Backbone:
C-alpha cells in the first residue's frame, strides 16, 4: 500500500524530474555547443589581468540602469569573470542577467546560461512556480524516497523464490515485473542518494534564510541600524582583504551589499578550497561596504555545508565525462523502473476490475 | 530440469538482499570516492557507480544466451 500510493502520487513528477534531469547532466556541454557558455580569448603572453573595478564598470555600462548583484569566478575557467546584474540588488533571481567578461581585456564575451537548458532547469527545479513549486517537488522527492524504502521491504516477499537477476519472458507482465525488480534493486543506493540530495537542494532558500537570521545577524551586529553604504569600496581592495583573511583559498564569488547572500552594509566574499571536496565548502568573509575592511569571517554552519556537499552528489558533475554518462544511464534505468511500476499498477487494477483474479502466483507474495 | 526450477532460490535473507546490498555498498563507495579524491579514485568511482549498469547488461546477456 505504502509503495503503491507513494509511487503513484509522485509518478508524474518523478518522470518530469528524470526526463528534464537527463539533458541537465550534460548542460555544460550542451550550453557550450549552443553558444551559451562563452570562452575567454587566449591571453597574450605576459598579459596582466584587468582590475575587477574596471570589469564591474564595464558590466554596468553594458546593462544600463541595472545594479550588480554578484561577480563570480568559474572554477574551470579562471579567465572568465561572470557578472550578475539585476533591476535591484534583491531583485527576482529570474530577472538576473549573467554575462562573462574576459579577465585580461575586460571585453564582454556573451551571456551565460539561458537557452533551452534554462527551460529544462526551471522545469526541473520549480516548474516555473517559484519557491512553492520548488518545495512541492521536494515533497515529491520525499515520496520517491518513501517509495524506494517500501520497495525494498516488498522486494523480500516478491523475489524470495527467485534468484537475483532473474529475467523471465513468460508474459509481458512478468517480463516488466522482473525488470522493475532488477533495475529497482540495483539502483537503490544511487536513487536514494540522488533523491535525498535533490530534496536537500529544494530547502536551499530555507537554509539561507536561517543562516541570515542567526549567523549573519550575529556577524554584523556591530553594524546594526547602519544605513546601506553610499559609496561602495573598491572591489579590488575588498577582494585583496578577503584573500588575506582566508589564505590558501580562492574567491568563488562576491555578493554585493543588499543581495540575498549578505547584509545590507557588507560585501560577502565567498572563498573556496581547491580539492573536489573543499572547493564546494565555501567560507564567507564579510567586508565593510564603504571601506572594504574585513568585519568577520566564519565557516558556514553544518546544514549549509551539507547542502553544498550534497549538490555534486545530485548533479553527477564531479567525476568527469564517464561519471556523467553513468549518471545518464542510471537515470534512464530509473525511468524504466517508474514506467514499469505504473504499467504493473494499471494491469493489476484492470484485473481487479474484471474480477478475473485467477491467481497469478508470480505476482503474489508467496506465503 | 525445467527453467523455472533453475531460477528458484532458497529464499534466505542473503540470497534475496545480498546482491542488492553489495551493489549498494559499492555504489556509495564510488559516489564518495569521486568526491574525496582526484586521479586514481576517479577510475574506481567509474567502476563502482557504473556497476549497476554493467550488472544489468550481464543479466541481459545471460538471458539472451539461454
Residues:
Amino acid at each position: 500500500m505504502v509503495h503503491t500510493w507513494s509511487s503513484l502520487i509522485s509518478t508524474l513528477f518523478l518522470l518530469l524530474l528524470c526526463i528534464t534531469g537527463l539533458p541537465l547532466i550534460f548542460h555544460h556541454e550542451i550550453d557550450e555547443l549552443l553558444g551559451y557558455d562563452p570562452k575567454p580569448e587566449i591571453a597574450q603572453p605576459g598579459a596582466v589581468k584587468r582590475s575587477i573595478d574596471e570589469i564591474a564598470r564595464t558590466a554596468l555600462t553594458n546593462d544600463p540602469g541595472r545594479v550588480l548583484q554578484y561577480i563570480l569566478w568559474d572554477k574551470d575557467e579562471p579567465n572568465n569573470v561572470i557578472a550578475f546584474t539585476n533591476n535591484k540588488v534583491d531583485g527576482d533571481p529570474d530577472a538576473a542577467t549573467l554575462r562573462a567578461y574576459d579577465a585580461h581585456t575586460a571585453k564582454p564575451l556573451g551571456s551565460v546560461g539561458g537557452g533551452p537548458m534554462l527551460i529544462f532547469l526551471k522545469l526541473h527545479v520549480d516548474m516555473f512556480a517559484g519557491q512553492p513549486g520548488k518545495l512541492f517537488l521536494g515533497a515529491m522527492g520525499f515520496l520517491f524516497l518513501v517509495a524506494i524504502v517500501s520497495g525494498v521491504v516488498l522486494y523480500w516477499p516478491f523475489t524470495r523464490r527467485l534468484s537475483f537477476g532473474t529475467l523471465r519472458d513468460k508474459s509481458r507482465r512478468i517480463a516488466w515485473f522482473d525488470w522493475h525488480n532488477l533495475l529497482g534493486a540495483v539502483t537503490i543506493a544511487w536513487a536514494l542518494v540522488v533523491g535525498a540530495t535533490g530534496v536537500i537542494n529544494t530547502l536551499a532558500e530555507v537554509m539561507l534564510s536561517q543562516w541570515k537570521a542567526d549567523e549573519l545577524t550575529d556577524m554584523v551586529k556591530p553594524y546594526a541600524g547602519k544605513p546601506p553604504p553610499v559609496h561602495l569600496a573598491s572591489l579590488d581592495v575588498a577582494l585583496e582583504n578577503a584573500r588575506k583573511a582566508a589564505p590558501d583559498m580562492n574567491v568563488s564569488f562576491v555578493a554585493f551589499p543588499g543581495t540575498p547572500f549578505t547584509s545590507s552594509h557588507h560585501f560577502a566574499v565567498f572563498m573556496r578550497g581547491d580539492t573536489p571536496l573543499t572547493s564546494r565548502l565555501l567560507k564567507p568573509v564579510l567586508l565593510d561596504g564603504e571601506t572594504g575592511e574585513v568585519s568577520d569571517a566564519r565557516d558556514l554552519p553544518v546544514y549549509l555545508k551539507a547542502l553544498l556537499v550534497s549538490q555534486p552528489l545530485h548533479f553527477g558533475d564531479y567525476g568527469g565525462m564517464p561519471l556523467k554518462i553513468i549518471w545518464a544511464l542510471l537515470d534512464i534505468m530509473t525511468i524504466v523502473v517508474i514506467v514499469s511500476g505504473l504499467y504493473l499498477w494499471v494491469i493489476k487494477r484492470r484485473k481487479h476490475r474484471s474480477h478475473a483474479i485467477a491467481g497469478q502466483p508470480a505476482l503474489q507474495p508467496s506465503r | 530440469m525445467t527453467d523455472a526450477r533453475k531460477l528458484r532460490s532458497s529464499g534466505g535473507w542473503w540470497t534475496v538482499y545480498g546482491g542488492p546490498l553489495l551493489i549498494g555498498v559499492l555504489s556509495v563507495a564510488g559516489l564518495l570516492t569521486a568526491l574525496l579524491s582526484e586521479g586514481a579514485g576517479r577510475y574506481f568511482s567509474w567502476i563502482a557507480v557504473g556497476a549497476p549498469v554493467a550488472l544489468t547488461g550481464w543479466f541481459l546477456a545471460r538471458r539472451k544466451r539461454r
